[in-house]
Specification:
about 725 residues
Length: about 725
């Protein structure tokens, strides 16, 4: 027996080596999947304009906005960048983007419609940056000032560093104090960089602010020439006051603080800076400042004030603009000011006549806030987020475009909401109500009706079949089913309701009946009389039910340890046809029926291929076991898609299984830089989001998928690698 086993194992190794030699290396290759486009990169952080295009740093990338017509700004491209984006600066044909807890990425924007990632520079913290000449100057928190040579964008190189702690003015304080140093901002002119440094003294629970004047004439060896203690000079009035921004212009440093207002520091001699003026008493918190030519824009909570600084010693108030809502200035360009409203709108303000600033253009980016994918049909993808529904035209997946949007006025949270799409209508459940949205005109979806259910504590699940909507919800005395006639979308009518025995996890609807499951039971409801639905039977189950599928009067159900097939041809007398042990144990599961096979997809135990051609005698024919949890996401044609990334993990692998031969064969995998818990395949495209914090990604599936390796092993102990730290086992 041992000899036989050795021969089999040797044969397996030879087979592996043979197949690997065909592939050219010793691991299964990534299946050919290519990111072609993304849409909905999130909230705007800051903005820089170049050649009639605005480049907006968002939560997860760059939004590129066409400004050729300032009165009608258009989003040209959403360019996904891995990580959380904070700042963007532009020099020449390159955008320099800071990524929180990661570093800096360099993007070629010579063609604004097709940005290309060119280079990366790793450093954990970047608070701010300025790029000039061939250098990027980075304010890097505790790492101080870091100077990076970016003359070769594909290979940025660190030239020099000024570490704050080396020459600390904190030495004048008692030795018992233990300050924490952080370089938070930088402004560069000539041979000098001004570094804003914050000292946090834990013993005093207080911050101290300094401006460091650093000689950068030799970028490889930055040298401190002087420092300016802001608190001692009165720039920062108390512990609640902080420096919010500073900019250089005409040998002057303009500084805003949250409480004491605007200050102008003369830095004509950077080694001996002194206060020129203090002006603008803040009546509310100053959020920063932007300078363009002879004008300075100072944003407060709901307004911006415009000052003429042609005489920097005497800034002159010129005008005020406000919209009655919270705003934040994120960029300026010539005589245009770009303002982000709290709602997500991007407003363009013309200040060519500074005494009468006026709104000339608006881009509503609320639809682009990080979306959750609902469905893909034809040339449209449907997504939703806290504010409402978006319809994205994906006719050209390289350039997904917002076609239309429906906004939930007064609603800004995804909690307690659900969207589903059926034909030209979207159904939204929110609290006790169901909204029906007419999308027959994709560019202008409108509310058809807002139906209020009888559920006192809210709706938790909806489904649509033909002209009826089935809603599950909770009232003070328990759970109920409501059947609503939606044949007239503008006037939904309640046809019937039924009190349920317990909370329903999932329901399946046929023409005249409904099947559902709870934690440990399966229920059937006769719905042929919509005005009087009634339960025909309940089947108890000893173990916790993990999934259920209804097909042709047959119920397929998994629990923690078993797979069962139940006939419900007679709804009053369901019959258990078979039950087989799977030993799946804990974890989630999903049942996928394809032809004469059921695929039992267990997150902890892998995939079981079960021959169900004889429902009374199902047979496990194959088993794919993954040694780390994977989650079923979707099936399309002869392929099933899984991922191992949970919502909050940040990264994941996407797995593609070929079931053409009724045996799940790993066709390959894709290393994603984001978690992917929603995957919708459609023809040769994959549409993905993680439902919480990612854009809508669109991937192209290549034609040449890597052939899956199949090792015949009676002993069931073959273990091999498909990727770094990724072991799988095929059990037959």
């Amino acid at each position: 027996m041992g000899t036989k086993r050795t021969i089999i194992n040797c044969f397996s190794i030879i087979l592996i080596l043979f197949i690997f030699s065909i592939n050219g290396h010793s691991q299964v290759e990534n299946f050919k999947i290519t990111l072609t486009g993304s849409w909905g990169t999130g909230d705007y952080r800051n903005l820089v304009v170049k050649d009639k295009y605005a480049y907006c740093a968002t939560e997860s990338g760059l939004d590129i906005i066409d400004l050729h017509d300032m009165t009608y700004p258009k989003k040209e491209k959403s360019f996904y960048i891995e990580g959380e984006i904070d700042r963007v600066a532009i020099l020449g044909h390159y955008a320099y983007v800071t990524v929180l807890n990661w570093g800096m990425k360099i993007v070629d924007i010579s063609n604004p419609t097709q940005p290309v990632l060119k280079g990366e520079f790793r450093i954990r913290t970047i608070r701010n940056l300025e790029v000039t000449g061939k250098y990027a100057y980075l304010a890097c928190g505790g790492s101080g000032l870091v100077v990076v040579d970016v003359s070769v964008p594909t290979n940025p190189i660190k030239m020099g560093t000024y570490v704050v702690e080396k020459e600390s003015p904190a030495t004048q304080y008692p030795a018992t104090l233990n300050p924490v140093y952080s370089a938070d901002g930088v402004s560069v002119w000539g041979n000098y960089a001004c570094l804003k440094v914050t000292y946090w003294k834990e013993e005093e629970k207080k911050s101290y602010y300094y401006l460091y004047m650093i000689d950068i004439s030799n970028p490889g060896v930055p040298v401190l020439r002087n420092y300016y203690p802001c608190g001692e000079q009165g720039l920062v009035s108390d512990s609640e006051d902080v420096i919010t921004d500073f900019h250089y212009g005409k040998n002057k440093l303009f500084i805003t603080t949250s409480v004491s207002g605007l200050w102008v520091l003369d830095v004509g001699n950077p080694e001996n800076p002194h206060i020129l003026i203090s002006k603008i008493d803040a009546y509310s918190s100053i959020k920063g400042m932007f300078i363009s030519g002879n004008y300075m824009m100072v944003p407060f909570q709901k307004i911006i004030e415009i000052y003429d600084i042609s005489n920097e010693a005497a800034p002159k108030p010129m005008g005020v603009w406000g919209c009655g809502r919270k705003i934040n200035v994120i960029g300026v360009y010539g005589s245009y000011v770009f303002i982000k409203e709290e709602s997500g709108k991007l407003d363009i303000i013309d200040i060519s006549s500074p005494s009468t600033p006026r709104l000339i253009g608006t881009l509503d980016n609320s639809a682009g806030y990080l979306p959750q994918l609902i469905s893909v049909s034809g040339k449209y993808a449907y997504t939703w987020n806290g504010w409402g529904l978006s319809i994205v035209d994906v006719t050209d997946p390289l350039h997904p475009v917002l076609a239309g949007k429906y906004k939930d006025e007064g609603v800004s949270s995804m909690y307690g909401k659900e969207f589903l799409v059926s034909g030209d209508y979207a159904y939204e459940r929110i609290n006790q109500s169901i909204k029906i949205i007419d999308m027959s005109t994709k560019t202008y979806p409108v509310l058809a009706s807002n139906y209020k259910t009888g559920f006192e504590l809210g709706i938790y699940k909806i489904s649509v079949k033909d002209n009826y909507l089935y809603a599950l919800g909770t009232s003070n005395d328990g759970d109920y089913l409501e059947i609503i006639d939606v044949s007239n979308k503008s006037n939904p009518i309640l046809r019937g309701s039924l009190k349920l025995s317990s909370n329903v996890y999932k329901m399946f609807i046929e023409e005249d009946y409904l099947v559902y499951f709870t934690e440990k039971s399966i229920g059937m409801i006769d719905t042929h009389m919509k005005w009087e639905p009634y339960e025909t039977g309940i089947i108890s189950n000893e173990e916790t039910i993990t999934d259920l599928v209804l097909m042709n009067d047959t119920v397929y159900v998994t629990d923690q340890f078993n797979f069962k097939i139940i006939s419900i041809q007679d709804k009053r007398k369901p019959v258990l046809l078979s039950s087989i042990k799977t030993g799946a144990g804990k974890g989630t599961s999903h049942i996928e029926i394809s032809g004469r096979y059921a695929y039992l997809c267990y997150s902890e135990k892998g995939i079981y291929g079960v021959d169900i051609s004889d429902p009374a005698n199902p047979v496990i024919k194959s088993r794919y076991e993954h040694l780390t949890p994977i989650y079923f996401r979707a099936k399309y044609g002869n392929y099933m898609y899984f991922s191992n990334g949970d919502t909050y993990t940040g990264t994941s692998k996407i797995y593609m299984f070929d079931i053409t031969s009724n045996t799940p064969i790993l066709s390959g995998f894709y290393n994603a830089s984001f978690s992917s818990n929603i995957i919708l395949p459609y023809h040769e495209w994959l549409y993905m989001t993680n439902g919480i914090s990612s854009p809508l990604f669109i991937f192209k599936i290549g034609d040449n998928l890597t052939t899956g390796i199949t090792i015949v092993s009676p002993d069931g102990d073959d273990l091999y690698t498909v990727g770094e730290n990724d072991k799988i086992k095929i059990v037959w």
